[in-house]
Every structure is written in C-alpha cells, then in structure tokens.
Amino acid sequence: MKKRVNKNIHLFLQIFSILSLVSLFLLFEIQEVRAESVNDVIFNAPDGASLEDAFNLVPVWINSHATIAKNKNGNDVCILTDDSRNQRAALWSATNYQLDLNKDFDTKMKLYLGNKGRAAADGITFTLQNDPRGNSAFSSSTEGGALGVYSSQNARNSAEAAREALHNSFSIEFDTHPNKDKGNAYDKKTQQCEPGPNHIAATMPGNPDTYEVTKEWFTNEVKVRHNVLTEPINLPNGSLSNGQWHDFEVHYDHLTSQISYTFDGQSRTCNLPRTEFSSDYVYWGFTGATGDDSNVNAVVFSELPKAVDVETTTDVLKNNESVINKNVNMGDTLTYSLKATYLGGIQNWTDVVGEEFLNPYVEYIPHTLAVKYPETGTITKEEPQITSNNQLIVPALSNDLGDVHENKWTSVEITFDVKVKNIDSNQKTIKAEDYTEFIGDNYTVQPYETTYQILNNEALRPQIKLSDSLANATVNVFPTDQSLTINGEWKDKDSNTVTLFYKLNGQERVLQDNVSNTAKDSWLPFSQDISLTDLKLGDNQVEVYAKDAEGQLSNHESFKIILNQGKVSFKSIDPEIQFQNMVISGSTVYSSPQATVGVVVEDTTGITKDWQLKVKQTSSFSDGTRELPAQLTYLNGEEKLPITNGSAIELPVVQNNTTDYSLHQDANHQFQLAVLPGAYAGEYQSQLEWTIETAP
C-alpha cells in the first residue's frame, strides 16, 4: 500500500527580450489523494467491542479474504469481503455465546457496505441459525446473490431451494445489488412483492415458503419472497454502498417473540419464527458474499448482548450497622459483606471467585469466612487465601450463578470479619480504601471501591501540588517525544526526607528518591523528566504524590498524557521559487534559484524513515499561446535528475532534528532551469506536484 500526500505547485515563467530577466514563481495548494481500499476501511472504522472468544470467522473457499483486524484505536473490525469477486464468509458466535430465545437481547452494530454505489455487490445478512453445521454453517450456493444463506438458482422447486439454503435460520438481508436478470432472479417480483434495487428484508432462508420457483424457457428462476415476515425497507439504487458506516440495531422481546431492527433510523418489527430453529439456543452473526461485482463489506459491533448481567455490592458493618463513609476506631471488629446477584444474560456466570483487596490497616480474623446461598439456605465455610499485599481470595464458588439451562443458583453472599490494627501514624484520620472484585470465566466485575475512616492523631502527612501547566491538564505527545518534565512543589511539617512518586496507568514509579526537607513546613520546588517509552496509544493517566520517611502519603495530583498516532506530512513549502536572471541567446542558457527552496517534511512516527520526497512537473511552461522550450532539472551531485510530467523523481533530504527533514540543497544539490534556443519573450507558467510516498 502507498500513502501519498500531494501538493500541487504552479510555476510561472516570464521571458523578456534578449536582455530581459527570467523569473520562476511557485504557488501551491494542498490536495489529499486517497483510494478506497480495505486497509483504509479498517483503519478508519469506528470503535467497537472485542470479538475475541465471542465469535468465529468462517472464510468459505480458498479465495476468501475475510479477516478480523484492528482499527487505528486497536478495536476489532470484521471484514466479511474485500473488494474482490466471488468472496464468501460468515461470522458466527462461539458455542458458549449462543442466544437464548427465552431471554431478551439487544445488540448494536455499524455496517459498511462499500462506496461503489450502483456497482456494488452483493451484500450481507444478519442471521440467527441452528443449522446442524453449527458455527461453520453456510449455504451450498456459490452465487453472490445468495448472500451466504439462500439457495442456488438451480433449485427445481421451493423444497429443493430450502434444502440448499442455510437450515433453521432467520436472516435480515442488506442487499446492495438487484438480482433481476434471467437465471439470476433472487430479487425479481413475486406474486406479492418486488423489493427495491437496494433493500433490507427479513426472511427465513431454510423455509420453502421463502421461495417462488418458476421456469423461464429452459432456465430455473429462484425468487426470494421478501415480505413473508414484514415489508422490506426499500432504498434507492446505490444508497447502501455510499462509503458511510450505517447504524444497525436489533432488539428481541422474548415475551412476544418479536424482533425489531432499525437501519439508519428506519425500523421494522416482525414475529421471530422460533419454530424454524428447533431449539431455544441459536448461533448468530453475519454472512457476506460478492459475485461478478463486489465491494468491501465490514461489521463493527458497537454493543454486544450481555453474556452475563450481574449486580454486586459490598458493605462493611460494625455491630450490624454500615460504616461506609463513616468513622471507626482502632481495635474495632468489622464484618465485610460481599453480595453478587445474577440478573440475566445469555450464559450462566461460571467459576466465580470473590476477591477483596483489603486496606493495610486491617487484618483478617481466621475461621470467619462464610459463603451463603440465600435461595437455598446453603452455607459453606472454607478459609480464604491471604496474599502478602492483604488481598483476600475466596475459593471458587461451588455453584455457577444463573438461570440458563434450568440452573437456579442466582445469588451469593460472602461474609468475613477483620480487626482494625493499631496504627503508628501522625494522621488524624486515615482513609481506609478497599476494593472488591468478582472474577468468573466469562465475566469479571471490575474492582470497585468502598471506604471508611479510621480515627487517629493530628495529621502530619506531606502535601504536593503540580505546576499550573500540569494540574488536571491534558498533554499531547508523539512517538518521537522521549521525555516529559513533571514539576511542582511539595512540603512536609516534620519529616527529614520525602520521596516523590508517580503512577503511569496504575504502575508506581519513583520520581525523586529521599529528597531532603531543607525547609520544613515550606513549599519546596521539584522538577524531574520522566521517560515516555511505556506510553500506550491514546489516553495515559498520571498521578503524582509524596511519601515521607514515616510512610505517610500526600494527596494525589493528576494529569493526562495523550500519545497521538505519528504521521508524515508537509510542514512547510515556500510559496515561491524565483530563479536567477538570465540572458536569452542563440544557445541554451541556465539559471538556478535565487534562494534556497524551503521544503520541510515533518515525521512524528518515531520509526526509521520509510518515505520518499518526490516531485514531478505536471504541465509544460506556457504563456497561454506558446510553450517555452525549457527543462527543469535537479542536480544531485554528479547526477542530473530531469523533472518531467512522467514518473515523479525522488529528491534527497537531510534530517534537521528529531522530526524535521528538508530538501538537500548546496552548490552540488539544487534546481536548475535550462531554456533552449528559440524562446520567445513572454510570461510562462507551469505546475509541480510534490509527493510524500510511504510504503511498507
């Protein structure tokens, strides 16, 4: 793939009489040149959910180019077909990610159906299925118009068509190509309906009622009845493949067995034919196909149905009363209560482990852990694992939580006692922060915080504040940036030394170690460079704080670093190049620029230079009537590089600093203009095109 950034440069040349001067002027305008490609679609795709462990991509035939790739922000994009002919592929849910039709589900997606307008083909489907082939299923038809779910055009009757199609299925098709030719009749008018040239329709591919098979001369025509379930959404020809990402949402109500879908604001609702599936559990996903015509077909999942929906709470009790956000005393006994309730989802919550990240000011009281299942009254007692950093890990629950496949264990309560330690500290109140986490094989509740205060003596902890330019600020950097200065002030009332720390994305690092407290209870400045080598692309959170010699922590100050994607681009180009005066005679005369030509390229990618600076002349010198017999050349040492309207030539560059490169220019490296005999006086102009080419 080549990335080209073009700048068009207009050249003006005026020639006077034999004693006149020749001047060359360059004016420029910027023009971005892009071509539709699957790589462009992937890179610029919207952000969405991860497909890992949830879906299986099924390329059909060896010529399939289906893939799951990452967009510019590292999010999953599924390419069902690229812009090649005769592509077929499916994206099916994993077996443990099937939909339970006894439960509601919602899902949101972004669909890309190419940018080829009327020339696009053939389209995609959103499909629910219980085909015996499971998540490797695909229709037997090799025709693009079948969209991976319908029968071939060779079926002799509707029953045979149903056997060739995807079995036990329901599809919502997004058809970008009208199939209304002889022997290619999927979208021909049936007795009841004729879909639009671009349409969205709900069908049952494996049901004979979906098909109307007729014979035209010696050719079978297999037509799809597009309104058996509900009227299709008919759109103008070419409107689906318009280079845009389209919004698509699906909602299923299990009480009414109705499925509703919305595409770019247009909605339809129909009864989901559950008897088609012969099961309450179905695979789901997308199919896509191209034929003699093609386009890129891609999907991003904005919102996936919840595998597990749970509610969790943590309470800390003293004498059966909550102390959350209240005060406790040293020596108190506290009871922790961790509750988890299964609310719904398409899976049970499996192999659940409860974890409590206890604050350092309490210790677990042995033999107090109890695991209770309120629905059954079951209580189990087993000792937890206590790690060196005071993390309490409860043994895995003996029962999965959920109601899928008649499992009825839906809630659990974990209780245990701790004792508040006697704390050697000068702080008046100590904030006790605990974090609860429930971890299952298929869902993890991210750690959430509970707090209370432990009463103590007068506070003597250090204080810190960042400079005005950093406090709560957002700092933008690029891959070429190596370091960032963190500065501010700190103070401490009594300690002899203070150590300054910072956390980068939660990872603690020393900023300055054992700094002498030269003026106690006074603000002292600090300034320190930190390395940027461990930044991740996008947002990076930074916290800065201090710890005194007695172990007391200061307040936390924070800011954000955004690591931007580096790029290669023109930073500047002189708007004018003026050549030295020359005298026109009966022989070839030469001129060079009066000043250095300013062309600067900025490269913030942080990688080894992989681009070239190129230039070509896109039009001859002309005054509107005559053309000037002239040749523009770049002298590259001993080599003369003619600049023509053919292929662009590569020009040498020199690196000015970490990011900037300029056109190499000295006595042996410069532009030269040769005006041949026979030139007429007048004002002439031409045009240059500057290009940055990048290729892997």
CATH top level class name of the largest domain: Mainly Beta
Helix content: under 10%
Computed Rg: 35 Å
Roughly how many Å apart are the termini?
Answer: 7 Å
CATH architecture of the largest domain: Sandwich
CATH topology of the largest domain: Jelly Rolls
Secondary-structure-based class equals mainly beta
Number of helices: 2
Largest sheet: 8 strands, antiparallel
What is the total tally of β strands? 51
Taking pLDDT < 50 over at least 5 consecutive residues as the criterion, the unreliable ranges are: 1-35
Binned strand content: over 45%
User: In the residues, how many domains can be counted?
Assistant: 4
Described by the principal axes of the CA atoms, the overall outline is flat
Mean pLDDT: 88
Description of the molecule:
The chain is mostly beta strands. The chain has four domains: 3-34 and 568-694; 55-248 and 280-303, Sandwich (Jelly Rolls); 309-442, Immunoglobulin-like (Sandwich), CATH 2.60.40; 463-553, Immunoglobulin-like (Sandwich), CATH 2.60.40. A hairpin with a 4-residue loop joins strand 48 and strand 49. Mean pLDDT is 88; it is low at 1-35.
